[in-house]
Design goal:
Blueprint (H helix, E strand, L loop, with lengths): L5 H14 L2 E3 H8 L3 H11 L6 E5 L2 E5 L8 H10 L5 H8 L16 H15 L8 E6 L2 H18 L7 E4 L16 E6 H8 L11 H9 L2 E5 L2 H4 L3
Parallel strand pairs: 4-6, 4-7, 5-6
Antiparallel strand pairs: 1-3, 2-3
Length: 237
């Protein structure tokens, strides 16, 4: 392991816990490229500034920060990811600790995708808050919107969660879909056209093997946050 200054290590510790709330002690030491004794010494130094709890699960030791801990706040984090400060309605979304149904009357181009995606990513992935659903599902009326949304969301994820990969699965005609239904325990984002997603929500998935219908139906009805974007063209769906 390379030698690092104490300041570099302490900065690395703070950054690590903004990326992930719970670290195995040995894993954190490897992540920071220091020895376990050095790590414990640095953790003792920052204990008055970082609300750490150590949990011993033989033979491992885990270090955890509280679910609500965020040193820079949502505004700072949002701006780092999106390159612009959040609007007030986006702050309101993130301030609501419990995820609930909403109707957003926001004009096109005012950041609906950023507001919803980054609020979900902040709470569910970065903070590990189980009150927010495990899957984020974007239902869109046109293929071009799916492709545009995929590009911006993957760019945000690359900035926000490099150590916590969040897969983005695309469901639309002509695109070979990943086996997203087999990875049920990890946070994930699903982007799809209305025919592909709503048919699965009705247990009749277009282009899906018949044996997958009930699995996909269950995953889209349980622990999933649906976003119906551009509702005018979606019509009765």
């Amino acid at each position: 392991m390379g030698r690092k200054s104490g300041t570099e290590t302490i900065i690395g510790i703070f950054h690590a816990f903004t990326q992930k709330r719970r670290w195995r002690q040995a894993e954190l030491a490897r992540h920071l490229e220091i020895t376990v004794p050095s790590l414990r010494a640095r953790l003792a130094e920052v204990s008055s500034h970082l609300p750490l709890t150590d949990v011993r699960e033989h033979p491992d030791v885990f270090w955890t920060v509280p679910a609500g801990w965020n040193p820079g706040g949502f505004d700072t984090w949002f701006q780092e990811i999106a390159d612009f400060p959040p609007h007030e309605w986006q702050r309101e979304l993130a301030r609501d600790q419990a995820c609930r149904d909403r109707l957003l009357r926001i004009p096109t181009g005012f950041g609906k995708t950023a507001g919803v995606t980054l609020s979900w990513l902040h709470h569910r992935v970065m903070r590990g808050d189980d009150r927010w659903p495990r899957r984020l599902v974007f239902c869109l009326p046109m293929r071009v919107l799916v492709e545009q949304t995929q590009g911006v969301i993957e760019a945000w994820i690359a900035r926000a969660a490099p150590t916590v990969p969040v897969p983005v699965h695309v469901l639309m005609g002509g695109v070979e879909a990943d086996r997203w239904a087999l990875d049920v325990d990890r946070p994930a984002i699903l982007l799809g056209t209305q025919d592909m997603l709503l048919s699965r929500a009705l247990n009749r998935g277009y282009g899906a093997a018949r044996g997958m219908w009930p699995m996909e139906y269950g995953l889209l009805h349980q622990d999933a946050l649906w976003v119906l974007d551009e509702v005018q063209p979606i019509n009765f769906a």
